[in-house]
Amino acid sequence: MMKKPSDVAIFYGKNENSKKIVSASPARKIAYYLLPGAVVEDNQVKIDGKEVCKTSEVKLLGEHNLQNVCAALTAYWQVSQNIEAARQVITTFTGLPHRLEFVRELNGVKYYNDSFGTVLESSIAAMQSIKGPKIMIVGGSDRYIEVSHFAKFVNQNSRDLQVESLILIGLTADKLQNALEAESFKAFINLGEIKDMRMIV
Predict the structure, then answer these.
(1) Number of C-alpha atoms within 13 angstroms, CB side, residue 177?
(2) In tens digits, what is the pLDDT along the chain, a chain of 201 residues?
């Protein structure tokens, strides 16, 4: 936590928890995804009323990554206001390996690797970010987290998000299956503790 009035605390301006946490700091507070920080407006990423780039030029997928872009841009703006430098980075950065990473397209099917998405909220974000019909591989190590909210989200939103099927793997496959069945969602395959991912494709 920033402890001095001369510090700067940058926070997500549309999240009540973020606002509550930052309120405890004496630092100068700057919201992002909300003025006075970087915002998305008219399909553009803007700061201080200036267009940095169009949202279509951002290489990262999903609204959550637009939020991340605005967070980074707001922090950068406290050090430098070089729009061209900011634009160069935002429009060329394609993300980190294993985080919604585009792998290849084969026979009209695009493959993405999101294996570092180790919580179900990441799976939900991926589901929302990748457009068009999709089959998702979910599961893995058991971190003993609640999965019912994920199953409920899938059941309520799978049609709108065009989730055709889930492939359940790993130690959490049975737990996910039970949660999905409790929500009456049936479009899944439980492969359990699969040894080789090549068996799926």
Answers:
(1) 14
(2) 567 888 999 999 999 999 999 999 999 999 999 999 999 999 999 999 999 999 999 999 999 999 999 999 999 999 999 999 999 999 999 999 999 999 999 999 999 999 998 888 999 999 999 999 999 999 988 889 999 999 999 999 999 999 999 999 999 999 999 999 999 999 999 999 887 777 666
The crossing angle, in degrees rounded to 10, of helices 83-90 and 63-77 is: 150
C-alpha separations of 93 from 59, 83, 90, 129 in Å: 6, 15, 6, 17
Tokens standing for 6? Answer: 């001369």
How would you write 28-95 as a 3-class SS string? EEEEECCCCCCEEECCEEEECCEEEEEHHHCCCCCHHHHHHHHHHHHHHHCCCCCHHHHHHHHCCCCC
> Kind and range of the H or E element at 22?
helix 16-22
How far apart, in whole angstroms, are the C-alpha atoms of residue 111 and residue 156?
A: 24
Six-digit token pair at 54?
A: 């169009």
Neighbours of 64 (CB within 10 A): 17
How far out from the chain centre does Cα 28 lie? 27
Is residue 138 classed as helix, strand or coil in its secondary structure?
Answer: strand
pLDDT for 1: 53
Handedness of CA 46, 52, 56, 57 (dihedral sign): negative
